[in-house]
Amino acid sequence: MKFYYTGAKTAGGEQTDPLASIGGYVSNTEVPEAQLGNIFGAPSKLIDTDLRIIAITNNDTTAYTGITCAINNVPANLTELLVAFAPMRTDAFSQPVAPKPNITNIYQSVTLPIPDMPPGSSLALFIKRNVKYPVPGKTAQELLDIESGILTEPLEEVLQLTFNYTVTPPAGEGGGTT
């Protein structure tokens, strides 16, 4: 199971900017494991919500079945993180494309069942950040500086995603659980 940024101009194209991972074609750039915990960077203006869309891809020759994802969200003082999953859609050339956000079910801390992933398939992982303003303990001037982008608030967001699944090999081969 691999994680890739979305937002590439073409399927499998280069796209290395986490801030541009907002849907569209799946890039060839893997998301560093440590990046999932803070894929947004520090907010510098009054933005109520922010969204990133990551592709989860099965690059193996075996299927992943019985998938669950345990979400452990430790909110920072300014934010909460919410997570949702959706199937990829395909373009006219059968290339996977992350859907544009239309999230009805989004979760903070829970274990979710995830659809099975045959070899070569992808799912869209939506990570939504809600920023809580005004910031407790800030002066009026500090709030104006935050709004104008002069002052930024450091964040230590923690989003742990733990995937459990069964590896289902092609017929005639052995099996196992990961």
Helix-strand blueprint:
Blueprint: E1 2-8, E2 24-30, E3 49-57, E4 63-74, E5 79-87, E6 89-90, E7 96-98, E8 111-113, E9 122-131, H1 140-148, E10 158-168, E11 176-177
Antiparallel strand pairs: 1-2, 1-3, 2-7, 3-9, 4-8, 4-10, 5-9, 6-7, 10-11
- The total beta strand count reads 11
Main pleated-sheet profile: 7 strands, antiparallel
Return the string of H and E elements.
Answer: EEEEEEEEEHEE
**CA-CA gap between termini:** 11 Å
Quaternary structure annotation: single chain
**Helical proportion, percent range:** under 10%
Instruction: Supply Rg.
Output: 18 Å
Structural class: mainly beta
Taken together, the total number of domains comes to 1
Bulk shape = elongated
Q: How many DSSP helices?
A: 1
pLDDT under 50 segments (min length 5)? none
Strand order of the largest sheet: 5-9-3-1-2-7-6
Strand proportion: 35-45%
What can you tell me about this protein's structure?
With 178 residues, this protein is mostly beta strands. The chain has one domain (2-158). The protein is 5% helix and 42% strand. It contains one helix and eleven strands. Strands 5-9-3-1-2-7-6 form a seven-stranded antiparallel β-sheet, with no helix packed on it. Strand 10 (158-168) and strand 11 (176-177) form a beta hairpin. The longest helix has 9 residues, at 140-148. The N and C termini lie close together (11 Å).
